[in-house]
Amino acid sequence: MGKLVMGYWDCPYCDTKGIRGDSAVCPSCGRPRGEVVFYIKGQAQDEERRADDVADIEYVDEETAKYVNRNPDWYCSFCETLNSDNAETCQSCGASRKDSEANYFQMLEKKREREAAQQRPAQTQQKKSRLPLILIAMVLVFVGLFMFMNGETTSKDYEISAISWERAIQIEQNQLYHESGWSVPAGGSVTSQRSEVHHYDTVLDHYENVQVQRSRQVIDHYETYYTYTDLGNGMFDQVEHQRPVYTTEYYTETVREPVYRQVARYQTKYYYDVWRWTPTRVATASGTDHDVYWPDTQLSENEREGQRGAAYRVVITNTKKGESIRYRVSEEDWNGLNAGDAIYFTATRTGGDPCISDEKGNPLVRLVRD
Known about the structure:
Layout: E1 4-6, E2 8-9, E3 19-20, E4 49-50, H1 62-65, E5 74-75, E6 82-83, H2 104-149, E7 152-181, E8 189-230, E9 235-287, E10 303-318, E11 323-329, H3 331-334, E12 342-348, E13 355-357, E14 363-366, E15 368-369
Antiparallel strand pairs: 1-9, 2-3, 4-8, 5-6, 7-9, 7-10, 7-12, 8-9, 10-11, 11-15, 12-13, 13-14
């Protein structure tokens, strides 16, 4: 057992603070202590104190401590009064101790359970009342946002001010290339070959001793600290503890470290000639009407036609603002459009591709900004 420390309690009836733990009744209202919590002045619950930081702790003198019963008070089931473990009858109502079951700590546990039970319904009701409102608000926000972002605007103040087309054919020429590699491609003709470095392997060469500085934590000394155990009778027991205090120690250690070297690995490298069809030019044709054709490629020796491509465009003008934008459309849709056509134009707020539509906004021709 450690030193005995004086505790205090607050009167739950008249709100008098800081009553000494060896007082069984409130000095202000005379009521015996009931559901109270003992504490040490200036001491937080479960707080530790170093040996050099206990000047404000109020110790019970050693002579008095000899006669203090260290068992917790017992709690009268009839009048809710705390009584010393030495008493066989309640100091307040005279009831026998045999008719009561709880002590100070059991009384505190039941008090905490009771307070928790009282808080749960209120918290549950508060959560229940808030939850529907939050859900409704979230649904309305998402619905509104969805409708706004996916909203479309359709206007008849547009016309097709121009149409155009472009077709292109890539022209390839068969050319001779002089190349090298670790293998010969199909159609390649080897002109020479020799052994060359293909890559390097890292291999162990030897070990060498190296001095390395290391550190470790070692015990420097032990420090004394105290904790305080509630005895449940207005007093606290000071419990002494020892814990190690560490310091960093540095030392030098000899270790064997591997030393590596790079070893060249050789393979046969081939030098060869190979003919390849290579894009060299593009033949194009374009126009601003529906007379569409492919360009004349006029192939020379060692040339051939490669990939073909085409683009079909319309220029759409806002007749009110005078603003024009060029779009690409499919060939099929383009064939049905003419310069001067009045159209309905539908755009989305999300910045997605607009379209030529009917008056209700139903898409007829998809547009891609060029």
